[in-house]
TrEMBL record:
Keywords associated with the record: Oxidoreductase
Domain named FAD dependent oxidoreductase: residues: 2-398
Family listed: Belongs to the DadA oxidoreductase family.
GO CC annotation: cytoplasm; plasma membrane
GO biological process: D-alanine catabolic process
GO terms of molecular function: D-amino-acid dehydrogenase activity
InterPro entries associated with the record: FAD-dep_OxRdtase, FAD/NAD-bd_sf
Coiled coil: none
Protein's name according to its UniProt entry: D-amino acid dehydrogenase small subunit
Gene: dadA_1
EC number: 1.4.99.6
Enzyme category, top tier: oxidoreductase
NCBIfam families: PRK00711.1 (NF001933)
Higher taxonomy: Bacteria, Pseudomonadati, Pseudomonadota, Alphaproteobacteria, Sneathiellales
Amino acid sequence: MKVIVLGAGVVGVSLAYMLAGDGHEVVVLERRDGAALGTSFANGGQISASQPFPWASGKVPGRLIRWLGRDDAPLAVRLRADPAMWSWALRFLMRCTTARNLDGAGRALRLAMFSRGELRRLRHELGLSYDAEERGILKLYRDPRSLEEAAAHAEWLGARGIAQTLLDRDGCVAVEPALATGAAGIAGGTYTAEDESGDAHRYTRALAERGAALGVVFRFDTAVRALEADGARIVAAATDAGPVRGDAFVLAAGVDAPALVRPLGLRLPVYPVKGYSVTIPVGGSNAAPHVSITDEDRYVVMSRLGDRLRAAGTAELAGHDTTPNRRRSGAVLDAVMSLFPDAGDAGAATHWAGLRPMTPDGVPLIGPTPYANLFLDTGHGTLGWTMAAGSARVLAELVAGRPSPIDLDGLTMQRFQKGRGRARETG
């Protein structure tokens, strides 16, 4: 079967590799000039099955009010005449309850845990090198009340197979000694030993090379303009270099996905949420952490990538604008230096901004569509690196006509449709 994959980020390349391993003829269409140059280029590096909780929570509305007008706020909204943004934001706010947050977390966790196992299998089978660290993730809290909520989350995760340890300040320093100089404001934290970190860009490029060796054809600098349908089937992807025909099509195009299927009558509630990262050269410094860190109160994550420290975070609703804002990326850098003041030369940090493809409920859209040979693999938000391998395995099975290896209830686009999906979205 000839399968056309739209998008060459970590999600699309993971899928292309698995499809080729299954014996398919695979063509990947990507508008950029290489793999992993969009959202996958400089993300936070965490493979975090322990962090499935969507951003939509009961705390968000109050925080949004406090953050209005602050350019360095963890979550910023750029007011604009964009119906898609307002529709997405309304759905997001409707999810800001404890019950709906846990509902989304349960669905995300199902995929994240499966994906973690698939990633490990690929790494060991292929011997992939991407600055992987299997030292877990340490999540830090400054507010004692937030630490109490973390204890409840740890109990919830434990009942679902994720072992998480609750720590006081000294316990956090014991897990990551580099915290010793910056831990004064820390109330405590949680530690998940099974989580990992690594460079998603290096991983994706390495996997693309393995895919190419299996016969995957990567057509870079090829922008998809539309999908051409004949009845209930897609027959070609119309590109700026002409039509590309195939037997099956998988949409792994991130924030570009909604525009590609809108002419087909499909509405995907995926909206770009801009995030920022900084990469600091740290050499072999022990003043920089080796354990991956999440600063919960500042919405910033940090991962050691060999001789670099990557920190990423914040969220900004600003449409498809990728223009860097040094004040916002500077806030990410400040979060790093407050915890690890001697980690490296902050002045030598590389600043970056990218767009996360987010759904209102924080759970990706994977699986079938009303078109028999069109499948979705998009909307992974902050967990694209975490969920890429698992999503790829699911889609590879579905494209081949085999059953999904995990329950897809609440993961497909059906949840945003009328009837049963509407009940799921608002329930």
